[in-house]
Design goal:
This protein is of the alpha+beta class and 229 residues long. The chain folds into 2 domains: 7-138, Sandwich (Jelly Rolls); 148-224, Winged helix-like DNA-binding domain superfamily/Winged helix DNA-binding domain (Arc Repressor Mutant, subunit A). The protein has 9 helices and 10 strands. It has helices at 7-11, 21-28, 85-90, 111-120, 122-144, 150-165, 180-187, 191-203, 219-224; strands spanning 32-36, 41-43, 51-57, 60-65, 71-77, 82-83, 97-100, 104-110, 207-210, 213-216. The strands form 3 sheets. The protein has a 4-stranded antiparallel β-sheet with strand order 1-8-3-6. Strand 9 (207-210) and strand 10 (213-216) form a beta hairpin. Helix 4 crosses helix 5 (122-144), helix 6 packs across helix 7 (180-187) and helix 7 (180-187) packs across helix 8 (191-203). The longest helix is centred in the middle third of the chain and has 23 residues, at 122-144.
Length: 229
């Protein structure tokens, strides 16, 4: 069983940075650690929101499907990211699937304690608004990239993965090995185009292999394409 969260772990998440000890204790009461296999669906679209989930290790994707049945990857989540925060708040149905890209360890928190905090603590409500605004901004950037060339789109995906793995700190962070079909879905490219573009990136040493995955090797190429300041 994965290790459970401590109050310090919670305060390390932007949403809960201002928690008091008593608030943290209420939120952590009844927490459950869960191991999730790669490709397993963790949260299912149209399910009722019954709790909050915190990723400890691993990567997951938030996906939905277009009217013609094509998969659209809305976000990639990694260590320290939350899932289910809006469905709990609205007591509604989840609006997307969350699927494990790699093996995950997660902790599930009770919905009632989280909802009580939101309704009674303005600082947490403000932090939630800021979290949702940042996610909307990331979603906008993701879809603006759909108009770019294949190389820029794939580099944008790899940068997003590196930052997700490192909690936003390191664009050169290790990216775990992912099937090219997943990279293709994230970039909105065909598998053939993704395979060809990825091979070109490696030939030009813009991306390098690693025993445990891959890394971006050239930050200048990201800056030239407007992906990094």
């Amino acid at each position: 069983m994965p290790p459970l969260l401590t109050a310090a772990d919670l305060r390390g998440l932007p949403l809960f940075a201002q928690l008091t000890d008593s608030q943290a204790d209420r939120l952590l009461a009844g927490q459950i650690g869960v191991d999730v296999a790669s490709e397993q669906v963790l949260l299912l679209q149209q399910d009722e929101g019954e709790g909050l989930v915190v990723i400890q290790t691993g990567l997951a994707k938030v996906r939905a499907y277009t009217a013609n049945g094509e998969e659209a990857v809305m976000a990639v989540l990694g260590p320290g990211d939350l899932m289910g925060e809006m469905a709990v708040l609205t007591a509604g149905l989840r609006n997307a699937d969350v699927v494990a890209l790699t093996p995950l360890t997660v902790v599930k928190l009770r919905a009632g304690a989280y909802r009580e905090l939101l309704f009674n603590d303005g600082s947490i409500s403000l932090a939630l608004a800021q979290l949702l605004a940042s996610r909307l901004s990331a979603l906008n950037r993701r879809f603006l990239l759909r108009g770019a060339d294949a190389t820029t789109r794939l580099l944008g995906v790899l940068l997003d993965l590196a930052l997700t793995c490192s909690r936003g700190q390191d664009p050169l962070a290790l990216i775990p090995p992912l099937p090219q079909r997943e990279l293709a879905a994230m970039a909105g490219l065909s598998r053939e185009t993704t395979s060809r573009t990825f091979a070109q990136l490696r030939e030009r040493a813009m991306v390098i292999g690693d025993p445990q995955g891959m890394r971006i090797a050239d930050l200048q190429c990201l800056r030239k394409r407007g992906l990094l300041n």
